[in-house]
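Researcher: Quick sanity check before group meeting.
Model: Go ahead. Protein one:
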Amino acid sequence: MMNRQVIHFSSVRKTIFIALLCLGSLLLSQEMNAQADLKGKKQVSEQTDKKTTKLELTVAGMSCQAGCADGIDHLLSRREGVVKSNTTYATGISSIWYDQAIISEKEIIELIGKRGFKATVKTTQTKIKDQ
């Protein structure tokens, strides 16, 4: 009878050990992801601080934030030369910071057009100077 209790206690200890090990791995993974997110945000902030051009577009044809506006931002974020993009369904405005040496205003408008939306320039471009 005593041997059976020892075996049972031993398996409980192993289960607790494995659970703690998994929890520790999960916490470490979350910490690493949080640090990577902060690093990514810092890089975007540094890129935005450099000399870039801001373009504001009126975007017609969007029907939602998640699929349409966020889809435009995702598309532009993958394009070299686009530093930052913020598109809002409620206002129909897309604000884009980009490097003119790499991508043009026309190319940005064409990219949005290929997604099925009509983009037109809302305001004139403004240079953001080095700080």
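Researcher: Fine. The other one?
Model: Protein two, sequence then structure:
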Amino acid sequence: MNPFQKILVSIDSDLVATPIVDLARQVALAFGAQVELIHVFESSGYHGPEVLELADDQDPKLEHWRTARAMMGLLKNLAASGIRVRARLTLGVVEEEVSRLAREEGFDLIILGSHSRKGLDRLVQSSVAAALIRMASCPVLVLPHMVDVIPD
């Protein structure tokens, strides 16, 4: 039996996504799994739909959204490898939305990156990865010590 058929990949716009997507590609190809990318906006400054489904032939009106553009690039990158992939943007608390989606839609694995926070910064800002490990209904694969970046 194939242990991983549906993989949920949480994309944080503050992290370099390439290693996370590369890991998701390797797992998906090894197990013949489909992949769904998700980015959760935690900002009250987000003024879009509650959930926005993305496809590789997406409406050009979304091109002005930096995050939508980045997610489309990741989606096309995985699709080029022959992987069945979807993506969505949503609003909420990351660990709550990702764990809820994984449970409700029957995902077998969650993949995400971890910040390299230390000291007081780590104490002040909670760890999404640690919370997901506690809350998730499926295994969580964390790629540790990702480099923090400010996207273009």
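Researcher: One line on it for the slide.
Model: The helical segments are 18-31, 66-79, 94-104, 119-124, 128-135.
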